[in-house]
Amino acid sequence: MDLLLPEAVRGEFAHSTTYLxxxxxxxxxxxxxxxxxxxxxxxxAGIPAGFGDFDxxxxxxxxxxxxxxxxxxxxxxGSAVSTHVGLVSAGLPAGSEVLCPEGDFASVINPFMVRxxxxxxxxxxxxxxxxxxxxxxxxALSAVQSADGRTADLAxxxxxxAAHGARMLVDATQAAGCLPFDAxxxxxxxxxxxxxxxxxxGVSYLTVSEEAQRTLTPLHAGWVAAExxxxxxxxxxxxxxxxxxxxxxxxxxxxxxxxxPALALLERIGIDxxxxxxxxxxxxxxxxxxxxxxxxxxxxxxIVSVPGLADRQGGLLAAGVVTSARAGNLRASFHLYNTxxxxxxLLNLLEG
Length: 352
Known about the structure:
Blueprint: H1 7-10, E1 18-19, H2 30-45, H3 54-68, E2 75-78, H4 81-90, E3 97-101, H5 106-113, E4 119-123, H6 128-131, E5 136-142, H7 154-164, E6 167-171, E7 188-192, E8 204-208, H8 253-269, H9 271-291, E9 303-307, H10 313-318, E10 321-322, E11 324-326, E12 329-333, H11 340-351
Parallel strand pairs: 1-10, 3-4, 3-5, 5-6, 6-7
Antiparallel strand pairs: 2-8, 7-8, 9-12, 11-12
Helix pairs in contact: 2-8, 3-8, 4-5, 9-11
């Protein structure tokens, strides 16, 4: 068995399947499972430790900020990417043009589509930068496409938006945690925390540049959006929190308790090492597919999708290999708990 990452890394996990489905949902590390159990047991026992730990949420905010290269003051925590995108959508003036890639993930698109006073325009991912025009107010796109693993040319799109005075929203859900991702150049980024970042559902992050914070209204502001939240549990808040914390949702504590050890593990290993590991496995799989006569969607992310093989997903699952069927593709995704043996098992099943 290969050791692209130390065997101790895989000892942090206890999954019993050949799990090649991180693009759908990551595997919780043992320490995250223990943190969830501890919180749930305390909640079941009716003791204060079961209420959830806001200090832990702040440490998660800080860890995510380090991971994506921004100050914690630019990070808001929430529960879903679509909620974050909805805030950005609500901040756009009527008549604004929003440009999106064709076939991007629904949560990146729908919050704009439901406003009938916005103009939403689509272009192929490969020519998105060329499609930015003088009337474009915002470009919203995923860094890595969920359906097939294609990677956006973020630098080219950033240059185009800068040239035309447009803002940019990047969904880093399929990038942060497996690819080096820097959120600092963009007005807005959104990231689901339960895939490559190895937390549970209910964890999501919004980053907002200092300038762009003035474009958003904290429409779901509760007591956690106050500058001094413990002094504003009742009645109207006197002052919103400084920075992006004003856009916080009340945290889903089970997910955030899981997120702290998961992010600590990623920091300990280092994203560069995780990236090298994940993409090496994806490259091995691509080479094996070529030998079998299959042609995957071109790309260099740890997500590999093969057109026409979606119907194999059920048989693979029955054999203990977990993948996804997406947009007619068989999608496999490789992360730090996977090995070359996992890749070879998938290839052997596809051949057989």
